[in-house]
């Protein structure tokens, strides 16, 4: 049987891979999975084809007797929050998150607000490929969909409950928000304004062609925004991805920080706030500085496979989970919800700045510093797996984490070597305290890999 779902829903180029007929069949399969009478919230990001795909999916859902609520344009975390908090049996989100402009996608949310488990995706795929759909009789098809217009308002209010609004308001922060011309524009500026901030949006109008930057927020794509943060004298800048579940921060000096850095700033604060919660979940792609900064506070770091859904589901089973995050800017704050949430992350960062009285640059400079290298080597998956084994063998006497590829932890540096989940490449990430050490690590890794090529 074929596969539809990748690491985060079904993705493809609009009208090439992701067509209305695929969306209709997938809608029928999802409707069959949730069953007659299920109450499902559907929404989307700003991407091209969003209207076309969501209508096709909704047709399939209605055919199976599902009760459809439609919220239109909204950040992914806003839809997830409403599904969890307001009695929905699940949700469907039309989004391709951080992918380039030609892509769109479909992802399915369980009643707890988190993406459905892998096994359930297999069930939907089975319905899709075998066409064992369960349409209801004519008199059970709903006459209309219901417009759900409280999504953003309820989401914003949900976020504000977790921070000290009056304290943050008293600081009059200046904030630059770059939502990449997508749905982050609908919530984050509102959150910041309610927190008394002076808000400047960059790439703030909705535009499905993403005219000014790629939807993925990175050190590269946020260069212009970082220049603006510095030149207007803002206290903080934040860049979201296309569906606004990620936040990449920029300090007042215009430095763009990777998500594991900003996450550690937040985790240090949360560790002091919640004494019984002493575990932090993060993917192996995060820096070793996570352990270095959090261990002295009695926090245990649980290294997971790359992929946000796994982190969310693992944290839900652990009463000691403080928070979870990815180095790409996804941050999960369980008291609000167990999934990545861009606007919640921004509110928490403002809370930390207000409560500590420190600027973001000061908070950033307190973190251990490393020299970083991220690279990739093209090779087929089978060879990439051999390369992982070769690196593990070369460093067999060191501490190794093998949940996803191999992460080698050395005294003053680390390296992660893992096959990509989506492309025929071997990904290499390394960091060290000094340039010399980093060069040495990369040399050793390349030599080990050279033996299998
Ligand atoms: Mg996203």
Overall domain count: 4
The global form is globular
Radius of gyration: 22 Å
CATH architecture identity of the largest domain: 3-Layer(aba) Sandwich
Bound molecules: magnesium ion
Percent of sequence in beta strands:
15-25%
**Main sheet: strands, sense, barrel:** 6 strands, mixed
Poorly predicted residue ranges: none
CATH topology annotation of the largest domain: Alpha-D-Glucose-1,6-Bisphosphate, Chain A, domain 3
Strand line-up across the major sheet: 1-5-4-2-3-6
Overall description:
The structure is a single chain. It contains 15 helices and 21 strands. It has helices spanning 20-34, 50-63, 76-85, 118-130, 151-160, 165-171, 188-194, 223-231, 259-273, 289-294, 308-316, 342-356, 360-365, 381-394, 435-450, and strands at residues 10-13, 39-44, 67-73, 90-94, 103-110, 146-147, 174-178, 198-201, 236-240, 247-250, 256-257, 279-283, 300-304, 321-325, 331-333, 337-340, 371-378, 399-401, 406-410, 413-419, 425-432. The protein starts with 9 loop residues before the first strand and ends with a helix. It has 4 domains: 10-149, 3-Layer(aba) Sandwich (Alpha-D-Glucose-1,6-Bisphosphate, Chain A, domain 3); 155-253, Alpha-D-Glucose-1,6-Bisphosphate, Chain A, domain 3 (3-Layer(aba) Sandwich); 259-365, Alpha-D-Glucose-1,6-Bisphosphate, subunit A, domain 3 (Alpha-D-Glucose-1,6-Bisphosphate, Chain A, domain 3, 3-Layer(aba) Sandwich); 371-452, Alpha-D-phosphohexomutase, C-terminal domain (TATA-Binding Protein), CATH 3.30.310. It is globular, with a radius of gyration of 22 Å. The strands form 4 sheets. It has a 6-stranded mixed sheet, with helices on both faces. Strands 8-7-9-10-11 form a 5-stranded mixed sheet, with helices on both faces. The structure holds magnesium ion (MG). Magnesium ion binds at residues 97-98, 241, 243, 245-246.
